[in-house]
């Protein structure tokens, strides 16, 4: 007789098998905030977001009147715009960089210079392998995005507010990612976020 094959389980069904942090591994919110990788990112990107937003709102004083500051509504729109493009950028980087496995020797050497991600998928519950500690990308990426927005004709105040939104989006993303693996996430929205992220681990 032919051996019976197991039916293929969908990613959504497999997601339920991503274990929640066990009693000995789950962290409290206070302990999570003190985790060195998460705290380091917050110390970099939260102040950066606040400073960029402050610069956007006081650009006339910073430039001696040569550039107009963002108005309140313009700053809010810039923040939202930054959050939107950060979400798209995170998807592209995660899909095409973090999961990139080239075969050519030259490209493999290039890949080793970029942040790693395989170990996190091998042990998703390791609290020391959830948040990236490599933030050197932020300055050249932010400068490139600012130059691109100015070249496209965006007002400088709006562009700075958009960078503030992007920095805040990165800090929020890192916290939510950490929480999906290390916090109980018992609320309804927490369970939805955790289930959605678990699908990625089983795709």
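^ Assign residues to that structure.
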């Amino acid at each position: 007789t032919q051996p019976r094959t197991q039916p293929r389980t969908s990613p959504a069904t497999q997601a339920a098998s991503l274990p929640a942090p066990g009693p000995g591994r789950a962290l409290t919110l206070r302990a999570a905030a003190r985790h060195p990788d998460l705290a380091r990112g917050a110390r970099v990107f939260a102040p950066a977001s606040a400073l960029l937003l402050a610069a956007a709102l006081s650009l006339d004083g910073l430039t001696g009147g040569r550039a107009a500051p963002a108005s309140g509504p313009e700053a809010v729109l810039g923040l939202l715009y930054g959050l939107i493009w950060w979400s798209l950028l995170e998807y592209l980087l995660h899909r095409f960089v973090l999961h990139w496995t080239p075969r050519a020797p030259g490209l493999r050497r290039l890949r080793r210079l970029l942040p790693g991600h395989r170990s996190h998928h091998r042990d998703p519950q390791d609290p020391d392998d959830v948040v990236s500690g490599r933030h050197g990308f932020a300055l050249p990426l932010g400068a490139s995005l600012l130059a691109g927005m100015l070249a496209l004709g965006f007002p400088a105040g709006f562009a700075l507010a958009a960078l503030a939104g992007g920095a805040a989006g990165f800090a929020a993303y890192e916290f939510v990612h950490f929480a999906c693996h290390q916090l109980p996430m018992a609320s309804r929205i927490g369970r939805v976020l955790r289930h959605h992220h678990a699908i990625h681990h089983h795709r």
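The CA atoms of residues 119 and 146 lie 33 Å apart.
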